Amino acid sequence: SFAIFAFPACGGGDDTGGEGAVAPASPSPVTATAVTARATPSPAELQRLSTIDVPGFTRSDGRVVASAASITYTAAAKTAGGASLVATVRISGCDPFICATLDPTDYESAEAQRNLKSVLSTALIESPGLVWDFGRVELAPGKAGLYSYAVGYFEQTTASGTSRVSTNVYRAWYHDGNLHVFIEVAARGASTPRSLDETKALMSAAEAQKAATEIFAA
């Protein structure tokens, strides 16, 4: 059996910077997997992982909570669209629920894809022009994980005003049966996007993947 990751919803709403502006703490499994952890990282090891610096990024909010290291990295360079890249990383020991299969073919069913997309609001999932990509990514030589990339925009005008929700976010995860690493890269612009094109312009999948691999390497 294998796990499908249902990521907690993040950010979103009217003029808040868009869904995906605040990274989730970690993925949550829906079904278990046969993977068994070889070892559990000690608090000291997790503390060390929470203090790793990455060239080209500013580290902040490094902490150990609930047996996991959580760190935020902000890229020094802006994207081509002028946005800041903010990556949230969570590192924890494996258990039979979180360390699922890393074979992308195990996620091809409609149900599996729905579970993966459940990180997005229903409005974005059903929005015209939603960009959704999922597959295998080599985060480092010989270390292939999975990724998802979502770009969406939804706008609704009612008698009480106009509400907008958007997302431009890249997520990658990997485990070796011992440690589980989850990286979310989101784009933060100077203002709230007001169209799908503006949302897309904030960050490309290539820019996000480059940031994720640089952080993973460290």
Shape: globular
Radius of gyration: 17 Å
Major sheet description? 7 strands, antiparallel
- Approximately what portion of the residues adopt beta-strand conformation? 35-45%
The largest beta-sheet arranges its strands as 3-4-5-9-8-7-6
In sequence order, what are the helices and strands, one letter per element?
EEHEEEHHEEEEHH
In terms of topology, how is this protein built?
Layout: E1 5-6, E2 28-29, H1 43-49, E3 57-65, E4 68-75, E5 84-93, H2 110-117, H3 122-125, E6 131-140, E7 143-158, E8 161-175, E9 179-188, H4 196-202, H5 205-217
Antiparallel strand pairs: 1-2, 3-4, 4-5, 5-9, 6-7, 7-8, 8-9
Description:
Mean pLDDT is about 85; it is low at about 1-35. Helices cover about 20% and strands about 40% of the residues. By secondary structure, the chain is an alpha+beta fold. The protein has helices spanning about 45-50, 110-115, 120-125, 195-200, 205-215; strands at about 5, 30, 55-65, 70-75, 85-95, 130-140, 145-160, 160-175, 180-190. The chain has a seven-stranded antiparallel sheet. Strands 1-2 form a two-stranded antiparallel ribbon. It has five helices and nine strands.
